[in-house]
Design a protein that fits this description.
It contains no helices and eight strands. By secondary structure, it is an all-beta fold. The protein folds into two domains: 67 residues, no CATH class; 94 residues, no CATH class. It comes from Nyctiprogne leucopyga. Keywords: Glycoprotein, Integrin, Membrane. One of its GO terms (molecular function) is integrin binding. It is a single-pass type I membrane protein.
Length: 169
């Protein structure tokens, strides 16, 4: 029959040990199959596998059998990129023209702020994420968007594009 095991975690000589009682008394020659599901946290920086030592022993025998089991670590995280523009819609008057060489912001167009948020929806944590965001700044040789500044929050670092505030507005 199928029974749930009673397992108890404990620390032993600096190692984490999970002790499971399989049966007492167990009849001579008995064969059992054990399926174990372990939930281990903090494996983000462990590489692509983790190794466990499994050991089977009897209280009636001084010797025990052990085996090393390597389990692949697969982290799963769903990333979501959200973004919006403030204002959401911008229309330049047909009579408007850019003033060459001006350092005034309003002579280069209407200010539009683009805000992007990268969210980890889990279940795992992530590190070392790279987001590449391409913003078209020119169209057919004409300035489409004048990239004025780039800011970040939350401990991220960004590499500014080469044409960022090229005219020092």
């Amino acid at each position: 029959g199928q029974e749930k095991l009673s397992c108890n975690p404990k620390k032993e000589n600096g190692s984490h040990v999970v002790l499971c009682e399989l049966g007492n008394p167990m009849k001579a020659g008995a064969q059992i199959t054990v399926d174990m599901e372990l939930s281990v946290s903090g494996l983000e920086d462990m590489g692509d596998a983790i190794t466990f030592q499994l050991q089977l022993w009897s209280k009636n025998s001084p010797s025990s059998a052990s085996a090393w089991v390597t389990v692949p670590v697969e982290a799963e995280a769903v990333m979501e990129l959200r973004g919006n523009s403030l204002p959401a819609t911008t229309v330049l008057p047909t009579s408007w023209h850019r003033v060459e060489g001006s350092r005034r912001l309003e002579d280069h167009g209407i200010k539009v702020e683009h805000v992007y948020q990268l969210h980890n929806k889990g279940p795992s944590t992530v590190s070392g994420v790279t987001l590449r965001l391409a913003i078209p700044s020119q169209l057919e040789g004409h300035i489409l968007l004048y990239l004025l500044e780039l800011g970040t929050e939350g401990g991220m670092s960004c590499t500014p594009p080469p044409n960022l505030n090229a005219e020092q507005v």
